[in-house]
Amino acid sequence: MADTTKKYASKSGRERTSRILIYVFLTALSIIWMIPFFYLICQAFRGESRSMVTYFFPKQWSLENFRILFRETEFGHWYLNTLIIALFNAVLQTVIVLCVAYALSRMRFKGRKLLMNLMLILGMFPGFLSMIATYFILKLIGLTSENSVPGLILVYAASSGMGYYIAKGFFDTIPKSLDEAARIDGASRSRVFFRIIMPMAKPIIIYTIMMAFIAPWGDFMYASLITFGHEKAYNVAVGLYKWLDKEHLSNYFTVFCAGGLFVSVPVTALFLGLQKYYVEGVTGGAVKG
Amino acid sequence: MKRLPELEYLGLPPAQQKLYDVRLFFAELPKKLLCGLKKIPSGIGRFFAAVGRFFSDLGSMFVNGDVKTKLSFFIMGFGQFFRRQTGRGIIFLIMEALFVWFMAGFGLGYLSDMSTLGTVAVEKTLNDYGLEITVYKDNSLKILLYGVLTIFIILGFLWTWYTNVKQNYTAQELIAEGIRPKSFKDDLKSIADEQYYKTLLAVPLLGITVFTVIPIFFMILIAFTNYDYSHLPPEKLFSWVGFENFRTILSTDVSGGSKFAFTFREILIWTMIWALVATFSNYFLGMFVAICINKKGIRFKKGFRTILVMTIAVPQFVSLLLVSKMFADEGIVNSMLMDLGWISSKIGFMTTPTLAKIMVLIINLWIGIPYLMLITTGVLMNIPSDLYESARIDGASGMKQFTKITLPYMLFVTGPYLLTSFTANINNFNVIYLLTAGAPKTMSYEGGAGQTDLLITWLYTLTMTNNDYKMAAVIGILVFVVVAVISLIVYNLSPAMKNEEDFQ
Amino acid sequence: MADVKLTNVKKQYDNGFVAVHDFNLEIKHEEFIVLVGPSGCGKSTTLRMIAGLEDITDGTIEIDGTVVNDMEPKDRDIAMVFQNYALYPHMSVYENIAFGLRLRKVPNKEIHKKVTEAAEILGITELLGRKPKQLSGGQRQRVAIGRAIVRVPKVFLMDEPLSNLDAKLRNQMRAEIILLREKIRTTFVYVTHDQTEAMTLGDRIVIMKDGYVMQVGTPQELFNHPANLFVAGFIGTPQMNFFDAELKKDRNGYTAKVEGLNVKVPKHIADALDKRESVPEKVLLGVRPENLILTDSGESIGASIKVTEMMGSEIHIHAELPDGKNVIIKVQIADLDDDQQNEMLTRHGIAFRIRERTINLFDPEDGRNLAVSDAAAVPTNE
Question: A161 and chain B: CB distance < 8 Å anywhere?
Fold first, then answer.
């Protein structure tokens, strides 16, 4: 008897040590993870010296950097550009992705497999490769430089059809018999799409809108090419990137942090608020492939 | 290598089974490749048979067609007008008119210039006042771009024309059988129903064609030209050079003048190491963190998760640029370490080649672990708990449970994801470009490449700073080849990925 | 109200697999037809072709005299109940039932009247405001049926509607379907893999295997005169016993010799045999377990008991013949007292004879019933 109690005791003791170890590990991890963000906040509100300094906490807290951001730079333009692009993209990309995903998930037609394979192969080319020619095409129709905003909206939306996988994976889990029941009830395919599938696809619609809205805020690669040479047309990523190069760094480092914070807060809030849908989307997508 | 009989295979210890699988795969690889190669002739055969069928179909449709059908071969929509399909007829006729107008005024000229890509770039002439002015003549870039556009428009038109002929013939046959061919109203109804996919896909596919297919086709052609900084239109012309660029980059001749081949090999190797290490370190560490957070009895699960997820939420250009500055020579990390007296001179986190490579891999964990944590949490929750219960009854310890149940299950379920994430890492522009922009640069590399450059960031530098479009195009094609080959191998190794319908 | 006619219907999938070969059937107005067979026999495919959910590779399907091959499901005026019910999860029960009517632009007042009527018939009036998620399996089933009956379709299709229910509910719903049928006289096509459902519901049953029709007939015909070995084995529990037999003809007619026992072939079979061009010597004799009679005297076949299953009012005896062949005997014990029952259950050996009137003779080569003209051969598995 005594033996067994001792065994149990030692078992729960071991559990406790392992739990403590895990807490220590996770806490350390959390601190490491948060340091850059604390640093960002500290620098954004630093009043003295606009260049990089050798200490972490500012000696003087102020809103000076934000004043500079909006009064003395083009940041307002960049922010507005990005916001407009993000809003349009959220609508267009969602519509396109849902259309493609529904067609490929629910309808069987000649060339469907071929189409999916083609898109798979196209996806294997590095995106930037096609961007070079896209740039010339956009230039032809006058949608670069000062007209970059509509240009970027067009570019993001045009190729978004290829990102149908996650939405298709979601549609695939909706039983086909629902479509069939509706078709027997007298619905055409388009009605099935709007009346049956769409109301059930709320999580994936929210996920798609969210991703489409957030993506333009972080795009550097395409935006730097399309907006090349026209400062007013930059998006936030391209604009802020410039402030960290050698000639601007000493004067703009804290302003960059202020701008970064100003961009991050709404995007992060939106993301954390809709985290549930994001998790559903990525896990579903990852598991389905 | 001989295949083991099934029972003998099952009798092997698990580790040897895996070993056997891998050896078998590589032993059979030549055979499989050969099989694949053997399919090519038959594929080509099938293609030509299809082309043959296409023409014989056309021929028989012309021979068997009545006057209306025959005339529709030349005047699109003609038959439709006389078969009470006016709507279709008008659309076809407009298409033909547009096509003729486009080709005559525009397409034909560019198409014929495609072979040379232009002969005269600029001409100096005197204007009315006797001043010398420059007149831009042929622009190779425009010729190539419009030429490609014209080719696609011709293909599209041919398909439309064939549809027109076919529809005419079908309608003729239906009328002969006494059935009324579909009216325009029926057509409209059908694109909302049985042909709804056409409605759904029309705009997205047009977008993909114009902004992905045509550009990629165009860039593939660029790889066979000498389009670079010394051949920039409109001042200069560029022209076809065949496989010259591929020879430059793939040449094994080290003593040659150009270091492109050397640079490419080095960067390719680093890209592969990067993708491999980044993918698997993220995967296993992410899984480890997920297991820690989800362990029974751990509290604040949501809090920990939210803190980690912040790195996904904050736009990367903010977080990564900031971190790169923190680790810069003058950055906060160096200065704090020196203040603490832990180091006496600055560490070149981002400026010494090897350390920079290690640093980008470590910082990538900061971005990658939370992402994998989310995914693996989802999968971990889905592992049926009775698996663990039965394992415990069988007497498996915690570690055994992990290696025998958790890990195989995870690998099985997330296998496809690992592949996508591997190829995504090959093309991971953001992390490298925002952290180091390829630096530290080195003289031993060509084309502005640096020690931490991946192929994709090198491609970017070649385009944006060096204007070396031809090499950028070649590298883009080679990246595609690498990704495609890896995907094919992995795809063949994991049978679970092949069946789309299995999930439905 | 309508009749349905299938002529030479064939279904071949893109991968070359033929799910249904040459299916011919005329379903009469207001008839209740059951398609039954093991999984993969093509019964659901056939139903889905009638519904218009699958294309027809070859042949024609007519509803009410109109060829519907190229008609969309919504234009066929049919209703269907699915195995997993296929209720729209985001709509209330009321909306689920009303959906089809709304799409047909029926006035709201009429919709309300019809939905409440249908709900009343099925006893789900108090559930109308709920979402499908809040319903039990049986309730969902009723809603699915409600959705189908509210439109008064020409043809009522049901695809394994009871297979997701537990045994008790299944029996109850089966009875309700019979009652429902009395209330709404229309043509029914019902697919199931369960032979009890087929026997109890169908006016006529179509038995299928590997895409071929094995037999079409009333439950009684199928039970008493199965067209081939497959039908004989599929219908009836426990399964029919098959014995190798030698068929001999003498002055008095035909005799089949089974395990040393002479079984007189009944007259209806003998007549049919006489009409045949040739009669094989070696045949398979099929007899149902309830038609093996235990006997203590006279000519009989002896067997040793391996397992005895007590079913309550009857006993199933699994016995082994001296040559190692297995045989099942069903014994009614309702009129035996406890001691007699116990004696029955503890026996080691038995002797039985065959109720001659009930036997069926099959050709061992192709499995056909020798006494049924135009019987289908059993398809061989490749």
Answer: yes
CB B313: neighbour CB atoms within 10 A? 20
ipTM: 0.89
**What is the per-residue pLDDT across A258-272, written as a single tens digit (0 to 9) for each?**
999 999 999 999 999
Chain C residues with CB under 8 Å of A180 CB are 51, 53, 73, 80, 82, 86
Task: Give the whole-angstrom CA distance, residue B22 versus residue B16.
Answer: 10
Residues in chain B with pLDDT values less than 70:
1-2, 253-257, 492-504
Task: Please state the pTM of the whole predicted model.
Answer: 0.85
Secondary-structure class of domain C230-362 per CATH: mainly beta
CA dist., res. A221 & res. B460, Å (int):
8
User: In chain B, which residues have their Cβ closer than 8 Å to the Cβ of A125?
Assistant: 216, 476, 479-480
Q: In what order do the strands lie in the sheet with C58-63?
A: C18-27, C4-12, C58-63, C66-67
How many Cα atoms occupy the beta-carbon half-sphere of B336 within 13 Å? 11
Size of interface A-B (CB pairs under 8 A): 287
- Rounded distance between C-alpha atoms, residue B421 and residue B367, angstroms: 13
Q: Can you tell me the distance from the alpha carbon of C268 to that of C358, in angstroms, rounded to the nearest whole number? A: 11
- For residue A187, the distance in angstroms to the closest alpha carbon of chain C comes to 7
Comparing CB atoms, the residue among A175, A185, A200 nearest residue C90 is A200
DSSP track, C269-335: HHHHHHHSS---SEEEEEE-GGGEEE-SSSS-EEEEEEEEEE-SSEEEEEEE-TTS-EEEEEEE-TT
C4-229 CATH choice from 3.30.70.560, 3.40.50.300, 1.10.3720.10, 3.40.50.1820: 3.40.50.300
Q: Which residues on A lie below 8 Å from B417 (Cβ)?
A: 285-287, 289
C326 pLDDT band, cuts 50/70/90, is: very high
Does residue A131 contact residue A221 with C-beta atoms inside 8 Å? yes
Q: Is the CB of residue B210 less than 8 Å away from at least one CB of chain A?
A: yes
Q: Which of C2, C53, C61 is nearest to C30 (CA)?
A: C2
Phi, psi dihedral angles at B418 (to 5 degrees): -55, -40
Cβ–Cβ under 8 Å, residues C62 and A170: no
Question: Domain limits at B95?
Answer: 65-118+143-230
Q: Is A228 exposed, middle or buried (0-12, 13-18, 19+ CB in 10 A)?
A: middle
In terms of C-beta density within 10 A (0-12 exposed, 13-18 middle, 19 or more buried), how is residue B173 classed? Answer: middle
> Using an 8 Å Cβ cutoff, are C66 and C76 in contact?
no
Q: Single out the residue of C240, C263, C331 nearest to residue C294, CA to CA.
A: C331
